[in-house]
Design brief:
- The chain is of the alpha/beta class and 503 residues long.
- The protein contains 20 helices and 16 strands.
- It has 3 domains: 130 residues, P-loop containing nucleotide triphosphate hydrolases (Rossmann fold, 3-Layer(aba) Sandwich), CATH 3.40.50.300; 104 residues, Fumarase C, Chain B, domain 1; 229 residues, P-loop containing nucleotide triphosphate hydrolases (Rossmann fold, 3-Layer(aba) Sandwich), CATH 3.40.50.
- The protein has an 8-stranded mixed sheet. A 5-stranded parallel sheet has the order 2-3-1-4-8. A 3-stranded antiparallel sheet has the order 5-7-6.
- Bound molecules: iron/sulfur cluster.
- The site of iron/sulfur cluster has 13 residues, from helix 4, helix 5 and helix 6.
C-alpha cells in the first residue's frame, strides 16, 4: 500500500475477492493515516432486506423497490435515516484509497456510482489468481423445472414456454443449443425477472427457478453442458474486464505464465520469503486416476498416521479424501474432516476445534481438500506439518476442466504467435490451477515471518510440478518413500535413505 501511494498521482483503487480482505486493507490505511473509503454491496448494507441475500439478489431487490423505499427517499431529501448503500459513495469523493471487492468494481459496471479509475490512478488487484479466467457453474434439476412451471402459471407465462419446460422435464437430453433455444432461454429469464420483482415488492427474497433455469440454458447455448443423475450442468468461463490504468497484480501463487497472460511484468518476491519449509516428495504415492487402488489409499492413510505433531492435510479431491477415509475408518473419529456440503459456520467450527487441540501441542489432524474451504480461507498457523495428498489436477469428469480447456484452446489457437496451442491450453487449464491450489493450501500453515513446518507433497508427480511452486516451498526438496517421512519437524534421521535432493 505504501508503495502504491508513493507512485500514484491520483488515487489507489484496491480490489480483493472478499469483504474480509477489503477490511484488512482499510485497517492498514487507517494505520498509515490515509483516508480510505470501503465500498460495500447492498447485501451488506441495505437495511430494507428482510433476510440475508446474495449480492445479485440484493441488487434485484433494490431495483424493484427503490422508488418507494423510504431510505432512498430520505437520502434524496437529505434526511435520516437514509440509504447507507448510496450514502457511502459520498465518502469516495475525497478518499485517497478506495477499497472494494472485485464484484463491486468490475462486475457491477456503470450501475455503481463509483468514480472511474483513471490513468493517473493505480489499480491493485489483490489475490490476483482469482481473476484469471474464472469459472461459473449453472445447474438445475427436475425439481427446479417443476418449480419453474409453477412460477410460470403464477405469472401467466406464454404456452410456448410451458411446452418447452415440459419437454425438458420429460427428457433433459432433448435440449439442443440453437437460436430458438437461446430465444426461449432469454424469455425464461425475462419472466423470471417479473416473478422476482413481484417477490421483492412483497418484501420477499427475489429467487426464481424460471430465472435460474433460463440462465443455465442461455449459458448452454454457448458453452459445453452435461446431464448426469437428472442434473443439467453448464460451466462458463469468464474473464473480468479491468479498467485501463496502471495495474499491480498481487498473488503469492501465480507465476510467470499467468503474468504473461495478464500482460504484466513478473517480479518474484517468493525468493525472499523467510518461511522455512522442510519439504518432502513421496515417491511411492500418487492420486493419478488409474492408480487409485485400495492399497494406494491405505498408504496415504498410513502416511497420515506417521505424523506426530499438529497437522493439516489437503486431498487432491473429495473422491481421494473419501478413498483414504474408507481405507482407515478410524480417521473419521480421530481427525477433523471437511465435508463438501458444509456451511461456512460449520467449517469455521471444525477449524476452531482443530486449533484448540493444536494450540495444546496435541497431534491433531485436520483433513480437507485442495481448493476447498479450509485450503483457501483459513489460517492454520498452529500446524507444524502440512500434507498434500495427491496432485490436485481436476477430476477427469469435472465439467470445469472441459470448459477451461476449450476456452484456452480457442484463445491460443487464435494467436498467430503461439506455436503449440494444445500444450499451452493444458498448462493453463490443468497444470497451473493445480499448482496454485497447492501453493494456497501449503500457505495456510505459514502465516507469520520465519514460520517453520514440514511440507509433505505426497505424489510422485510433484517432482515435475516443483518448478511451478513458490521457491520457498521447494528450496530444498527431498524425494523419499512415504515410510521415511519424519514424524515431526527436525527429526529427519541422520543417514535416512533419501531417493534424491532436487535442487
Ligand atoms: S435504496 Fe432502499 S432498497 Fe435500495 S439499497 Fe438503499 S435501502 Fe436498500
Amino acid at each position: 500500500m505504501a508503495a502504491a501511494l508513493t507512485v500514484a498521482r491520483g488515487r489507489v483503487f484496491w480490489i480483493a475477492r472478499t469483504l474480509r480482505e477489503v477490511e484488512h486493507v482499510s485497517a492498514h490505511c487507517r494505520f498509515l493515516g490515509i483516508e480510505v473509503a470501503v465500498v460495500k454491496g447492498r447485501a451488506e448494507l441495505c437495511p430494507a432486506l428482510s433476510e440475508p441475500m446474495t449480492s445479485e439478489e440484493a441488487s434485484a431487490y433494490c431495483s424493484a423497490v427503490r422508488l418507494r423505499c423510504q431510505y432512498y427517499t430520505n437520502m434524496l431529501s437529505g434526511v435520516e435515516p437514509s440509504c447507507p448503500y448510496y450514502m457511502q459513495f459520498n465518502q469516495t469523493k475525497n478518499a485517497k484509497v478506495i477499497a472494494a471487492t472485485y464484484n463491486m468494481l468490475l462486475k457491477a459496471g456503470r450501475l455503481v456510482p463509483l468514480p472511474p479509475v483513471r490513468s493517473e490512478d493505480i489499480l491493485v488487484v489483490d489475490e490476483a489468481h482469482n481473476i484469471i479466467a474464472t469459472v461459473e457453474e449453472h445447474s438445475f434439476t427436475k425439481a427446479s423445472l417443476e418449480r419453474a412451471l409453477q412460477e410460470l402459471s403464477i405469472i401467466k407465462g406464454p404456452p410456448a414456454l410451458r411446452d418447452f419446460l415440459h419437454r425438458l422435464l420429460a427428457n433433459m437430453a432433448s435440449f439442443k443449443p440453437s437460436t430458438r433455444a437461446a430465444i426461449l432461454a432469454e424469455s425464461l429469464i425475462y419472466h423470471g425477472k417479473q416473478l422476482r420483482r413481484l417477490l421483492a415488492e412483497k418484501g420477499l427474497r427475489p429467487r426464481s427457478s424460471l430465472h435460474s433455469v433460463g440462465k443455465a440454458l442461455r449459458a448452454a447455448c454457448r458453452s459445453p453442458f452435461r446431464i448426469e443423475d437428472d442434473r443439467f450442468t453448464v460451466v462458463e468461463v469468464k474473464e473480468l474486464e479491468l479498467p485501463r490504468a496502471p495495474t499491480v497484480f498481487l498473488s503469492g501463487t501465480i507465476g510467470r505464465h499467468e503474468a504473461e497472460l495478464l500482460g504484466a511484468e513478473y517480479l518474484d518476491f517468493t525468493v525472499f520469503a523467510s518461511y522455512e519449509a522442510e519439504t518432502y516428495v513421496t515417491e511411492d504415492l500418487t492420486s493419478a486416476y488409474e492408480q487409485r487402488t485400495p492399497e494406494m489409499f491405505k498408504r496415504y492413510a498410513e502416511l497420515l498416521r506417521r505424523i506426530k505433531s499438529p497437522a493439516i492435510a489437503f486431498a487432491a479431491s473429495y473422491k481421494v479424501l473419501q478413498g483414504i477415509v474408507e481405507a482407515d475408518k478410524e480417521l473419521e473419529q480421530q481427525a477433523f474432516i471437511e465435508r463438501p456440503d458444509m456451511k461456512s459456520a460449520e467449517a469455521e467450527e471444525l477449524a476452531e476445534a482443530w486449533k484448540a487441540l493444536a494450540r495444546r501441542g496435541e497431534p491433531a489432524l485436520y483433513i480437507g481438500v485442495c481448493g476447498g474451504r479450509g485450503s483457501e480461507g483459513v489460517d492454520f498457523n498452529e500446524a507444524q506439518a502440512i500434507l498434500i495428498l495427491g496432485a490436485p489436477f481436476p477430476e477427469p469428469d469435472d465439467p470445469a476442466l472441459q470448459a477451461l480447456y476449450q476456452y484456452y484452446a480457442d484463445k491460443f489457437a487464435s494467436d498467430a504467435e503461439v506455436r503449440e496451442p494444445e500444450r499451452l491450453a493444458e498448462l493453463h487449464a490443468v497444470v497451473l490451477p493445480a499448482a496454485r491450489k497447492v501453493a494456497q493450501a501449503v500457505g495456510r500453515a505459514f502465516r507469520e515471518p520465519g514460520k517453520r513446518a514440514l511440507v509433505i507433497l505426497a505424489d510422485q508427480r510433484f517432482k515435475r510440478l516443483k518448478r511451478l511452486l513458490p521457491k520457498w516451498i521447494v528450496r530444498e526438496l527431498r524425494v523419499v518413500n512415504s515410510d521415511q517421512v519424519p514424524p515431526r519437524l527436525g527429526t529427519q534421521r541422520e543417514g535416512m535413505m533419501s531417493l534424491g535432493v532436487i535442487e
